[in-house]
Fold each of these.
Amino acid sequence: METTGTPRRVTLTPAARRILGAAARLFYERGIHAVGVDLIAAEAGVTKKTLYDRFGSKEQIVVEYLADRDERWRAVLARHLEAAGPEPAARVLAVFDASRAWSAEHGAKGCGMVNAHAEISDPSHPAHAVITGQKQWMLTLFTGLLGDDAGDVAGRIAPEEAGRLGRILMLLHEGALVAHGLRVFADPFVQAREEARTLLAAAGGAAAAR
Amino acid sequence: METTGTPRRVTLTPAARRILGAAARLFYERGIHAVGVDLIAAEAGVTKKTLYDRFGSKEQIVVEYLADRDERWRAVLARHLEAAGPEPAARVLAVFDASRAWSAEHGAKGCGMVNAHAEISDPSHPAHAVITGQKQWMLTLFTGLLGDDAGDVAGRIAPEEAGRLGRILMLLHEGALVAHGLRVFADPFVQAREEARTLLAAAGGAAAAR
DNA sequence: AGGTTGGTAAACAGATCGGTATACCTGTGC
DNA sequence: GCACAGGTATACCGATCTGTTTACCAACCT
């Protein structure tokens, strides 16, 4: 599973790192349009000139923010997947565990990609590809965990069934992100994980019986 | 099922109606912060003075936009529920049908409430209550359709099970809204509806067997 | 010794933001 | 006959927006 994209268009000097850190926090908490570059510079303890020397434009900071957030999420996810072992069911459940841990620390307002998408109308905006890219990647992850990437392990299921089940898992996962961000009810990731477990047990049972 | 809230803080003169219509379209398509009052007034064919005479502030237009969108969604939903008849399972599936129809016409960018929430950081903002109110109402709807509101019809299930299943349906529904808005895959409402049907069949079967 | 890199400090530019003010017009109800 | 509600048209306000400019400084690499 390669970590595609993110060729890092910007050299991350110490100041640039502080800018990106401040921007990430502010963009996520208050929204992209609501945060000005002056505020980002002030919070990073940096002058506006430095900010524009490093990033060139606010738009570029937005792209870098999203790409960086995606990268950090995938790193957290990779750790959970590694700890889960080779069984498809365990690996799928590990995704929900990873999301629960991630959201507890960085997800008080739900999915940063979905939130950014709400503020970006232009589909040709470079951030748009980062956003939809992550969602596509997550869908491929779910279906891949159940099908192709499962290898010859017990619990692997047929491709068409992996596609269908992967999409359902995707819906549960996205729903949990929203429910968490809007505090619809407590512990949505646990709820989603439990449902995923039931689904996998049925599918795995059927696969084992086949 | 009462349509609570929305006491309409504003007298809807013809001009005000055009303002609200233009604001609704622009806010949803481009985001709230990205749209200025000058643009709203211009699109509505109205002067800024009229706009401020009717609504008093942009914030008020935002609140009215969300409350109105919520109201119109509930009207569409009510029609679908009415056509579905008294059986809980049919009524739950009707929610997904309603969302599919609604999203095909007004949902190209996903859930307007979730998108607005992404732009509003202040929890004391009057729009915040409208947003979380709708989500809570939807959760109550799902659990109610399966439990209390089901009356003495066949297919009614135990309260704790209605709560659990209602939350799962909520996750599927929110996930489908996101998947639709970000075009993660085709026809997410159909996918969610199919899964809901499977879940309801299992729960209803268990209830019937009890 | 000297150029390059990564900074600070601070002023500035042009546009746009939400919101207000003044003057004038028109239909309706009493 | 006349006030009033609901408008148009237009100019204006201070604040904030993204982005630029000029001047100076310290560290590092050759």
Note: Residues 13-15, 46-47, 49-50, 53-54 of chain B lie near DNA strand D (CB under 10 Å from a C1').
Amino acid sequence: MSLRIALLGLLSAVGPASGYDLAKKFEHSLNHVWQAGHTQIYPELVKMAADGLVEAEAEGARGRKTYTITAEGKRELHEWLAEHDPSMTIRSEPALQAFLLPLLDDPDQAIKVVERIRARYLARLEQLDCLPAEGSFGRYALSLGRAQVRTGLAWAEETLADLRKRRTPQ
Amino acid sequence: MSLRIALLGLLSAVGPASGYDLAKKFEHSLNHVWQAGHTQIYPELVKMAADGLVEAEAEGARGRKTYTITAEGKRELHEWLAEHDPSMTIRSEPALQAFLLPLLDDPDQAIKVVERIRARYLARLEQLDCLPAEGSFGRYALSLGRAQVRTGLAWAEETLADLRKRRTPQ
DNA sequence: ATGTTCATGTAAGGCGTTACATGATTCA
DNA sequence: TGAATCATGTAACGCCTTACATGAACAT
């Protein structure tokens, strides 16, 4: 259901757009919040049009279809935002690897794992830092996303220090 | 694939266990890292047994089946931990709501949304604080999980302060 | 002419959620 | 006897990923 909401939110924020545009926006502005590729977005827009949440406008150059949010779509969006209790479901592969770390007897191996996690967080942080302020629309989510990644990075640094201390007790 | 890994990790850490046990462990120790209910776990264990990663032992009382990790299972687990580049895929409903906040013109409405997010993070933090040290097996993941939740909570507090300032400019 | 970007889709298969369904054991 | 807990599963449906497939327009 949240994919719909994300699409409605983008349409509401940036105005009419094609599936292609929305896929780009996803990558550049919602990336740290929700993920979806064009193969998920195109069919979903068709369903949303069938449900009256968006309207497909006349095709333009290169088969381009422009979608616009409807009043009904805006209503659904606002209702979700105002009423929906956000689920705390989490599936984090870095955290799963962190969970499994004690299985590695060799501290050097554990260090390698954490170094890889650290590199991933770092790359992600750089990616977020390059995001355009973008009319500052996504500012709240961006500050949350950045903080979360920085937290992951800090955890990695601390854990590395800890593991290195254990490796060389003296 | 990660569900398998999580199950192999638990079996490796706590020894032979039933699907029921594993579902409980999931809830009490992997909760902030990965989520899965018994309806996902039971069929997965059957598949894993077919793939030779675990062995189902004789049935006990009340139809209980005990699973043990095999050498092949341990190999897969260690390989994943050592080689797998963790995916950064994230789908966070709180963050999606944060993203959409600027759509609300009324600051009071925005405040309500953030207050609900804050309450959810707070509840989650209390839940984590009640977790048993549990032989401290999940210690690294727990510290990461706690830090992540605290970050979300801090974001909510800051955002509330910011929104309240905007509401009453004087 | 060739490569890149724009633009759209389908299909198969796996992962995840919710609802449904059953029955034994233990404790009050 | 009745309620709670232990213990297992199936089915339907929806969400997500990966791979496949097509073609127009534009820049070099």
Note: Chain A has seven helices and two strands.
Amino acid sequence: MALDHATDPFPGWDGSLAGARTLQAQLAAQVNLDDGFVTPLRTLAGFDVGFEDQGAVTRAAVVLLDARTLQPLESHVARVPTAMPYVPGLLSFRELPALLGALAMLSHAPDLAVIDGQGIAHPRRLGIAAHFGVATGLPSLGVGKSVLVGRCEEPGPERGDRSPLLHRGEQIGWALRSKPRCNPLIVSPGHRVSLDTAAELVMRWLAGYRLPEPTRLADRLASRRDQPR
DNA sequence: GCGACAG
DNA sequence: ATCTTGTCGC
């Protein structure tokens, strides 16, 4: 996928942490929470990040899947020098460059991107999945394994049970029981996906595991401590 | 001021 | 995220 419309993910950023937070607030205003993806979805892209050389290299994996069969069509791994430490709330400034590198390796743009981490379930409503969506213009949503901000009730024990994740009086996502006896997933919209749809889509992509297929397959690629070929 | 804090 | 094998529970 040629990045013809590639926009700078950090426009005008001065490199400071304060500047990063200010930029997040600005970019968050561009997030669209109305469903704006093609129906029916044809392709999905799952993304995840891992590290090599004690963190010196950031490795982003992407897997393109057929949205109907959930079968993988192609996958790639991008490696870029790590430029930022992990700072809670600023994850996208550390991992987005690698994710965009992986996206650029796809032969075609996906109809929707599924990213490991939060969408709008973030202090300033711009978790990495939302940031990715605004930067690329692609519909996106986040699937996290734990909460960054907000509170929620423990969802019921059945597959599909869910409870709203609340923060400052508004719903920012869901705690979703994707599999019995497993900790709930934290699902939130990224860009061009609504709150309700985000949870429904993730349920649709489950195949017997805690993680939905797009992120499960990308995870497997991103965290292999071997075959750097 | 003290904790909490995606990956 | 990463360092790391077997082990307990369903």
Note: The beta strands of chain A are 43-52, 57-66, 72-81, 112-116, 140-144, 162-167, 170-176, 185-191.
